[in-house]
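Journal club prep — side note

Before the paper discussion, L.F. wants everyone to see what a predicted structure for a comparable chain looks like in token form. Sequence:
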Amino acid sequence: MPKQFFCAREELETSRVALLGIPFDATSSFRPGSRFAPDHIRLYSEGIESYSPYQHKDLAECAFTDAGNIDLTISNFSVLREAVHTQVIHDLSSEKKVLALGGEHLISLPVAAAYAESYPDLKLIHLDAHADLREDYLGEKYSHATVIRRISEIIGTENIYQFGIRSGTREEFAFGDQATHFYPFSLNPAIIQTVVEQLQGSPVYLTLDLDVLDPAYFPGTGTPEPGGVSFQELLQALLLFEQLKLVGADIVELCPAYDRSDVSTITAIKLVRELLLMLDE
């Protein structure tokens, strides 16, 4: 299995973006397996073109390095938080942006927390089928279903922008309506452009849960949710976000085992390519 993502540079010192695998799915409650995604993405990454016709850029000219996977020999949140925090703070101190590969959505919490230390005015854009705003889930405070609630406690609910949400509890939807910038059910380009204009100049972290895509396009995920967006709709949204000051991002919730065709994996890889190119500014 290849140790690096397609076109990654060996020279850590000269890279501007670090690709970091976080193979963690300890709180996955329905269909686990996202811990295998980082290596699966690397394995199939050579099957795509390095050139993005959407951005007119090429990965071969992108100054990114593959930092490998976080070592998680013990799968609990305390270990995850410490290991991720140490690595991300190191990368940020070296003036590198981080693109994290999950893993389940809980991996976003320690990454975003580390970013918040470097960017006190950090804004978070959240693309997902699920609100992830529960106070706790199955008795756990730290879970894939609580991750955005926990991040909001660090950066403030007023700094969170949620798009594409179509599943959650009554309480989560009420909390989103009242506390965050909550735009459920779609990735409306007009709304996104308005948000982009509001966030000009602010540091923005983007968290992309791949189940925002409809299962017809992306079946390989732990909690599929009908009624999602197409790949083209998601891509158009990402290209609008390119206007922002993106300082970091993550892609989470690919579960390769649930799509034997590997179309979901290839879709994830193409989105990794686009985000790497967006971050390399």
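L.F.'s comment for the group: The mean pLDDT is 94. Keep this in mind when we get to the figures.
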